[in-house]
């Protein structure tokens, strides 16, 4: 029997119209590439998104299902693109500006972008590959300075495009299962793969991440979006902020620690997102130049890589700012879990509490997770048994764009994350490693992530990455690549082994340590272990 | 272009399976009708819901689309019914135990319930009408004491029904648009009307009310469900608690103020729901017998009637417990708005703050609202212009069960609430009256709700209801019916007029006051103005 409830599709337009109606005065604040501070309201955001949508239809000939690329920083125009493009049924394809030219070229041709909206500061990256782009008919330049010039053909300025367009629109009623956005994974092997989000998945993900068990965002928050809009839709925050009526602050290219701290101070930011390396930098900057007044910042949400126990502890002890670990992937929109303490943990020692908070945490409603062991069986939730983390849910992909490859999916329809994890009896998931980075020594697993966390807790160590190296006897052994906190204060191998011995079994402790100036990172700031392995193989580490 | 996201229907079974997986140890605690305290986990809830679902299919022949009635208090068996019945595609029809025999008979015959699950203490109410029930094949008795006997035919005990059934089930994959639950409005005019909820609307409503702008519930909360499960699905809380992983506490028939305070103390309740009259009683009980230790209770969510500014203030000043005003109707699942302060209000006086908090508040995402004036035009959001509140959204009905009557719907598909409201520039909606109770005196509107709130703030007054009475000169005039706080301390008409004169225009102040022992209430605890008008018309008020 059918329910008698109104048909009400969950779309990005639903979100935009909601914010205009319920929170017309709330603000979208942008620190533009040229340093200017720009501010307007959600009411104006809707108006300008209408203008953009009208221009896409009337001036650029964009139709339902067309791909429209963006190659841009976080700012209000990019938010207008997040709503204007899917609002007329087209797909907002955010292109990662940090990929190689070869990958960027591949992505744009593969997705068949008809138009690309590009920040003036990023135009040089596209100029290099423009002759090889097969489908792009026009480039729309955002934030162009005076006397801007480019070798790109068929360009138009963003403000010229939308001016004179009506700022009203009878937004079309869309099918919530249609695509609204696309990102490519920054895959460490092979070419990037396309991930297409639907309106429905975008809405449900945004609605879920604002809940108290997840990010806990309300209309009283001022939220800084450090995660780039070209990276998994900025974790859905440009949608979430409108649903919750919080102010949204966009830093564009001002991502240096000093710049971030200045924005945190000036805008009285209460919550923010970002990968751990950003927060590491912010922490060090604040230690060096402590803010004059206590920041309004209560909490930062971290994903992408593991938040180390030492960073959680340092930020909290020194500045009273809470780090919250979340987990996700491009293929999961991205957020699937977060780790917060519960009342039952309140009598634990601080150290034990932080150990729980450094886990990836409990799945959100709408997401299911399981651990599957080497034997193909679902592992018990005992906090010990490791296996591959597999997920399914309302914002998890069922396939990649334009490919029938099913390597990442199980026969019964779960997505294979490639992460090796445990789940404890309270439901907290912990990633112990990536399948491909996992160290198996003498038939026993060694968690490189656990070793890295432990090493980074040493006062003399700034960063540490652990990889597997071939070993005749044990088949694999861990190698630790470390970055010193102070280059004038080295640390001996024995000192490190001694330091690790309290928390690890003998066989788990690396025999070999090398010192780096910097841990190589991927385009999204994760430790690039492939690159470290390559350096090792080429004899360049010692 | 289609998104590439997994198909993942939003159903009550999704919710049940989620809690079993993510929060297996969280508790459902019941104070049973006989006074026993019962406790088990969400893991066990899923197990027993499987047993129930298997019994419904195997022993009672319930099929997809069948109506299954419940006539019961809040307790774990009733929660099992909330999941077990819709889990196999049938509809959980919760029958309001407080209606007249005539209405109850009408509802059961109209809905065509095949089976009714009934609490032993409520059996006498059904015995009276059983001979007239046309479709009921069986009565399942819950919480039967020893030596229970009844004149009902075809009865079975709940525990006998489910025992020996498997506690596992491959829950069927349901269409999220199928019905999962049904309630009848306790309509003040005519016979009750049926409202059918879908799985999707139930999920989205539950997911939304846990957000920080709404109820703000996390896995750290212990939530007392005072709103009966037979009243608009207990405001969706039995679904919400599982989504958020909070403990759920059920009082069954222990709804007297002393009993509620005892449960608040013993279970360390952090949040609760309920209509204002319940909280008025709890407040008075706590004043009389102050709890020895400060309660864990942080907040109570109120709906159904307006929460008076004086109750908000008294509870907060005396006990540090926050009242949160929400608004909704059976036809809106029910919750559509809530009122919380924002940063911009922090410099207002306490009195001004409470004035905002006593409004019905801002609509939730998924809900749209508008005010339509007598001229049929959408009224501005200026906090002054009154009109009928109309809503639409993802958990608002598009029609009533088995009727084509469109009186409550506009031509463009909005639901007409029958409430007269304003919306201010910050988006806070305030109900000024019911259309049918609205007082129009000399061409000017008078808000009976505002008068009632003001009168109830007088220390000598416990309750006040204001109705319109016919007037030759002004067409209508307000009449205030008051209940004294202390019968030995009467209050004069002049004293009342003087008291109101600071906040109201002369024409708005009632000329006439009558004293009652008790304000008549509807079955769901609202002031029954129809009854007051009837008493007045019959000359029984003076």
TrEMBL record, chains A, B:
Residues 23-401 form the AMP-dependent synthetase/ligase domain. One of its GO terms (molecular function) is ligase activity. It comes from the Bacteria. Keywords: Fatty acid metabolism, Ligase, Lipid metabolism. Transmembrane segments: none annotated. One of its GO terms (biological process) is fatty acid metabolic process. Gene3D superfamilies: 3.30.300.30, N-terminal domain of ligase-like. Belongs to the ATP-dependent AMP-binding enzyme family. NCBIfam families: PRK06187.1. This is Fatty-acyl-CoA synthase. It comes from Maribacter arcticus. The lineage of its organism: Bacteria, Pseudomonadati, Bacteroidota, Flavobacteriia, Flavobacteriales.
């Amino acid at each position: 029997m059918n329910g008698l409830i109104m048909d009400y599709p969950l779309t990005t337009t639903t979100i935009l119209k909601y914010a205009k109606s319920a929170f017309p005065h709330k603000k979208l604040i942008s620190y533009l590439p040229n340093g200017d501070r720009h501010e307007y309201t959600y009411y104006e955001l809707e108006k300008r998104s209408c203008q953009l949508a009208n221009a896409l239809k009337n001036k650029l000939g964009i139709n339902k299902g067309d791909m429209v690329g963006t190659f841009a920083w976080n700012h209000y125009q990019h938010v207008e693109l997040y709503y204007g493009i899917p609002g007329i049924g087209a797909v907002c394809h955010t292109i990662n500006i940090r990929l190689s030219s070869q990958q960027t070229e591949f992505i744009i041709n593969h997705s068949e972008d008809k138009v690309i909206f590009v920040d003036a500061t990023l135009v040089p990256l596209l100029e290099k590959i423009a002759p090889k782009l097969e489908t792009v008919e026009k480039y729309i330049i955002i934030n162009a300075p005076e006397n801007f010039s480019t070798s790109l053909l068929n360009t138009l300025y963003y403000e010229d495009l939308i001016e004179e367009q009506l700022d009203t629109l009878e937004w079309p009623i869309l099918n919530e299962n249609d695509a609204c956005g696309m990102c490519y994974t920054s895959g460490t092997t092979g070419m990037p793969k396309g991930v297409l989000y639907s309106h429905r998945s975008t809405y449900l993900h945004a609605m879920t991440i604002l809940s108290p068990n997840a990010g806990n965002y309300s209309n009283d928050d001022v939220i800084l979006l450090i995660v780039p809009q070209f990276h998994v839709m900025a974790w859905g925050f440009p949608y979430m902020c409108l649903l919750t009526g919080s102010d949204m602050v966009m830093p564009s290219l001002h991502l240096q620690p000093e710049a971030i701290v200045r924005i945190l101070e000036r805008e009285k930011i209460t919550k923010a997102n970002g990968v751990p390396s950003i927060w590491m930098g912010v922490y060090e900057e604040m230690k060096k130049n402590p803010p004059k007044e206590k920041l309004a910042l209560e909490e930062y949400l971290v994903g992408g890589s593991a938040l180390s126990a030492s960073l959680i502890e340092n930020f909290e002890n020194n500045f009273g700012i809470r780090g919250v670990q979340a987990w996700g992937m491009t293929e999961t929109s991205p957020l699937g879990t977060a780790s917060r303490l519960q009342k039952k943990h309140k009598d634990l020692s601080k150290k034990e509490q932080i150990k729980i908070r450094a886990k990836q945490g409990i799945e959100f409603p709408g997401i299911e997770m399981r651990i599957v062991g080497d034997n193909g069986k679902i592992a018990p939730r005992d906090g010990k048994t490791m296996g591959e983390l597999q997920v399914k849910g309302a914002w998890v992909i069922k396939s990649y764009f334009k490919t029938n490859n099913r390597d990442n999916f199980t026969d019964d329809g779960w997505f294979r994350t490639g992460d090796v994890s445990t789940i404890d009896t309270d439901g907290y998931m912990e990633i112990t490693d990536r399948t491909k980075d996992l160290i198996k020594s003498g038939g026993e697993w060694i968690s490189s992530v656990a070793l890295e966390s432990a090493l980074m807790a040493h006062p003399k160590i700034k960063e540490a990455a652990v990889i597997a190296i071939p070993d005749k006897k044990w088949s694999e052994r861990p190698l630790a690549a470390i970055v010193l906190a102070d280059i004038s204060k080295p640390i001996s191998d024995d000192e490190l082994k001694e330091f690790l011995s309290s928390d690890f079994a003998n066989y788990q402790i690396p025999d070999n340590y090398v010192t780096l100036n910097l841990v190589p990172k991927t385009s999204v700031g994760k430790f690039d272990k492939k690159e470290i392995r390559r350096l090792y193989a080429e004899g360049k580490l010692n």
